[in-house]
Specification:
It comes from Paragemmobacter ruber. It is built from twelve helices and ten strands. With 273 residues, the chain is an alpha/beta fold. The chain starts with a strand and ends with a helix. The structure holds adenosine-5'-triphosphate.
Amino acid sequence: MLEARNVTRLFGQKAAVDTVSFTIEKPGFIGIIGRSGAGKSTFLRMMNRLTDASSGELLFEGRNILALEGKEKRAWQGQCAMIFQQFNLVPRADVVSNVLHGTLARRGMLPSMFGFWPDDDTLKALAILDRLGIGEQAPKRAEALSGGQQQRVAIARALMQDPKVILADEPIASLDPMNAQVVMDTLRRIHDEDGRLVIANLHTLDTARRYCDRVIGMRDGRVVFDGTPDQLTTGVARDIYGADASFNESATSTSIDRLGTAGDDAYADRMLA
Ligand SMILES: Nc1ncnc2c1ncn2[C@@H]1O[C@H](COP(=O)(O)OP(=O)(O)OP(=O)(O)O)[C@@H](O)[C@H]1O
């Protein structure tokens, strides 16, 4: 389904992504982990064509999507939706309009400029919001929602494109543990129920282990691990994160239980922050 062949992105002399190769045979739930600066975001941005690659090929169903231009590139971006850490919603617009923005690539800007959306699109947006458990939020301004709800609106906007691939760049990094769990459950569901390929950059090991079918570990732009969650031992994680023997897994955890038992003060600080 997807094959990366020596995908590389240079910034000056530095390779942010360095000859990355892997194959995904069928739609799965794939996690990419690695410490800050490992190249995870750059890789996803190349896949969505928000950033150009320096060299290499990324074949999706046999076509090199890194070489697409103009209309074909935009069509690919329609099939490959992206979700961001900061949700990227229009805060003052209502929730259903934000979801309808997922049709802009297909319909152009006019409907959004005049606030006119075709009825069938509006009904579809409402149905998606219902499916994600936030139908009653449809008329509210996006900025009035909690972070977890906003991220579900962003997922709904992505689903409006009916994409084959969903890319999620640190989708839960701004959320508290409870909302993080709801958002990860939602992403997992849209893979399980719709059969879409989901690739998520994750900064916590426990999330990758719990939700992913396969985990790719990146370090300094390179793939240093590619396997199943049960192969992701503490030793392997230490290699990926480039940490020494004092590496402590709980430092990369967002689990509610772990945080709760790690010390009430630390937990309270985190929740308050
Ligand atoms: N536009 C840019 N110009 C120059 N260097 C960049 C640019 N974007 C990313 N980099 C560099 O590329 C490397 C990889 O960055 P990237 O954001 O892909 O890592 P990451 O694993 O996603 O980390 P994080 O989780 O902190 O976002 C870093 O060294 C970063 O400084």
